[in-house]
Design brief:
2 copies of one chain form a homodimer. With about 120 residues, the first copy, chain A, is α+β, with helices and mostly antiparallel strands. Chain A has a single domain, classed as Winged helix-like DNA-binding domain superfamily/Winged helix DNA-binding domain (Arc Repressor Mutant, subunit A), CATH 1.10.10.10. The first copy, chain A, has a 3-stranded antiparallel beta sheet. The radius of gyration of chain A is 18 Å and the shape is globular. The interface between A and B is large, with 42 and 42 residues. The structure holds a DNA duplex (30 and 30 nucleotides).
Chain lengths: ~120, ~120
DNA sequence: AACGCATATATAAAATACTTATATATATTT
DNA sequence: AAATATATATAAGTATTTTATATATGCGTT
């Protein structure tokens, strides 16, 4: 609902985090997990998801396994060793960024800023 | 340094937060505050800043006062009443987003996700 | 039986927001 | 004299996401 321009750049680390925690996942499952875990606040659209997954595969960060389940094709993604390192880095970056944002959002930091001058 | 795609969408609320805390500020001052408060982690570039400030002015969220200080032109920005409401909304949105990210980054939520099924 | 909804992957066009590069000009410090 | 800090501004380029569209099966309900 809320205009989520905020997502930009965060989707890739979020996907990598999910793959870190879950060994292997397929695309649809990833979108559902993000929805669930964020209590509906983050909608990871297919148009965003698949290009990211394909890019990760191209870069050798994930490998895929295709399986036919209930007559439907399902493509599982899992991190390679390289991908695990990429994931660690990207997740750490996002964590640092979140901490920085929290400082900036802290109530009345303006006071400290004024006092520091 | 770090590729900050992460910033996207967060700059506007950050600027609004600064203006909320500081009554009036000029462009250069805003960039310096962000740098200081984020310990150098967030570089708000002029190419990003001024378009946002001009947009806020167009939208009636801020008003400007020009002053000549040390022979240099300085343009102060301050929130209008409308702007204060915009700021509250945008800041609240960013806070909620940060909280959501923290849930997603929480170590081993994967476990909870598995248990919840 | 038909309809809608959930499941499942995929791509292209459009919108958006930021980075990088460039321009101009004064004041201060080395 | 040169470099750095102060001060605002815009345009071109890039990257990432949203929106729209395509295809296809399974399940539940009326």
């Amino acid at each position: 609902m809320a205009s989520n321009d905020l997502l930009k750049g965060t989707l890739k680390p979020i996907i990598l985090k999910l793959l870190t925690e879950n060994k292997r996942m397929y695309g649809y499952e990833i979108t559902q997990s993000v929805k669930e875990l964020s209590k509906g606040k983050i909608e990871l659209t297919f148009g965003a998801l698949y290009p990211i997954l394909h890019k990760l595969e191209q870069d050798g960060a994930v490998i895929t396994e295709s399986e036919i389940i209930n007559n439907r094709n399902r493509i599982y993604y899992s991190l390679t060793e390289t991908g695990k390192n990429t994931a660690k880095e990207k997740i750490a970056e996002l964590e640092e960024f979140v901490n920085t944002l929290r400082i900036l959002l802290k109530p009345n930091y303006g006071l400290e800023y004024v006092l520091a001058r």
